[in-house]
Specification:
CATH topology: TIM Barrel
Helix content: 40-55%
CATH architecture: Alpha-Beta Barrel
Strand order of the largest sheet: 1-4-5-6-7-8-9
Shape: globular
Order of helices and strands: HHHHHEHEEHHHEHHHEHEHEHEHEHH
Radius of gyration: 20 Å
Bound molecules: coproporphyrinogen III
Largest sheet: 7 strands, parallel
Number of helices: 18
Length: 400
């Protein structure tokens, strides 16, 4: 592993950094208005930092915020996601209000499908619904071809990211996309599903068709993700929200290669790659093997246990039980401290919830929780590497 031994060393080498545009936030330190040394990025890279704990929340932008409800009024969700100035405003809202340590790009896991030309809507209170479920060979043959038109159609995403990072300044923007299993399951089921039976049946019955569909999603989402990074995102998160419904055996047989291909779309770039799913205690090592550099953990498993399962050297993110957003301050703060203590077992830990912010959350509770976390001393990440020994980019790139 190549490593720059100066005290200013960052984990990436000049080669991968040079793939980012000159004005990318990761190419400048905070003092110069960039994100290269932001504590959250250092923690994702397993590097030591003296900063107080870093925190952001999945679904921090959204219905828990009155300013979000006002901004969204009269605009359908997916239309909002393709309106760059609205995206920048909504992404910045929770950063301004709660002082979280990252913005998460305001979009949705089905936005790429809409951009590619599929008829999909997000039905309030329900979730993504596709007009034409994709179940047969003919359905898969009819999927849009992902050619250079897609790059042109991604223009609103690039523009939205550029506006957002201008708004966020030294606060990193996390780009994201949905993983092949979770996105394909919406396509196959036609909408939200409790047990993803049709999708899991397709995998076993017609593994050839499943592989074509998953590869299509991986290509599409991978291009959506790469566009976000090149336009200014400093890290990425791959959401495989519903993959916890699979056994590790089925995951490794039918899913991991597609998730790996998707993460490979940004693996040459010096951005941390977080991978998260719900109910994935049994899949954490496999999700790391899919090419993640950070593993997101839900609230059903303790972080120190997750670290044991993952083995040394893997930074983690998580995993405050969202239920404590609805308790008094006592249980909430006890949970936050317990998560910090357990997360210290990893080389780096970024605090998050175990799943997204519920829409009915009182925004003031989130603001107070962030302030409480920021009052805590820097956790002593016991698995952290000295700066000069932090993982270098060549090892990262080798996963591509
Ligand atoms: O702060 C953020 O996290 C903002 C960006 C974001 C959204 N969706 C905005 C959104 C992200 C990262 C997502 C990802 C997403 N979308 C996932 C993976 C994360 C997870 O929750 O596990 C999934 C499964 C989806 C699909 C989806 N989109 C669902 C299930 C829903 C909820 C439908 C409802 O109304 O209850 C959506 C809609 C959605 N995505 C909203 C937001 C802010 C609500 C839309 C609204 O305000 O009407």
């Amino acid at each position: 592993m190549e490593q720059n031994s100066t005290s200013e060393a960052t984990f990436h080498d000049a080669t991968s950094e040079s793939l980012l545009p000159q004005d990318h936030p990761l190419r400048r330190a905070g003092a110069a208005g960039g994100t290269a040394d932001a504590p959250l990025i250092r923690r994702y890279r397993g590097q030591v930092t003296d900063a107080p704990p870093s925190v952001w929340f999945m679904r921090q932008a959204g219905r828990s915020l009155p300013e979000y409800r006002a901004a969204r009024e009269g605009t359908a969700m997916l239309d909002a996601c393709l309106t760059p100035d609205l995206v920048a405003e909504i992404t910045a809202q929770p950063v301004r209000r709660h002082r979280v340590d990252a913005g998460i790009f305001f979009s949705d896991i089905v936005v790429p499908a809409r951009i590619a030309g599929l008829a999909v809507e997000i039905v309030p209170g329900r979730g993504p619904v596709f007009d034409h479920p994709v179940r047969t060979e003919a359905d898969i043959d009819a999927l849009p071809v992902l050619d250079e038109h897609l790059d042109a159609a991604l223009a609103p995403i690039r523009e939205a990211v550029a506006l957002t990072v201008g708004e966020l300044g030294t606060t990193p923007l996390i780009g994201f996309c949905g993983a092949p299993f979770t996105v394909a399951s919406y396509m196959v089921e036609g909408g939200p599903s409790r047990d993803h039976l049709r999708t899991r049946a397709l995998m076993r019955d017609r593994p050839d068709l499943w592989a074509r569909l998953a590869a299509w999603v991986a290509e599409l989402s991978g291009r959506f993700l790469r566009a976000q990074v090149l336009a200014g995102a400093s890290a990425v998160q791959l959401f495989d929200s519903w993959v916890g419904s699979l056994s590790e055996e089925i995951y490794r047989e039918h899913v991991i290669d597609h998730s790996r291909a998707l993460l490979g779309a940004v693996a040459d770039l010096p951005v941390p790659r977080v991978h998260f799913g719900v109910g994935t205690g049994h899949l954490l090592p496999a999700m790391h093997d899919a090419g993640a550099t950070v593993v997101g953990v839900d609230h059903r498993i303790r972080l120190d246990h997750a670290v044991d399962l993952l083995g040394p050297g893997v930074p983690v993110q998580g995993n405050i039980d969202p239920a404590v957003l609805f308790t008094g301050a006592g249980p909430r703060e006890a949970e936050a401290l317990s998560v910090l203590a357990a997360g210290a077992a990893a080389p780096g830990h970024v605090v998050n919830l175990g799943h997204g912010v519920p829409p009915e959350t009182d925004a003031a509770v989130l603001t107070d929780l962030v302030a409480f976390l920021h009052e805590q001393p820097a956790p002593r990440a016991t698995g952290a590497l000295p700066v000069a020994d932090a993982p270098a980019a060549p090892a990262e790139a080798a996963r591509a």
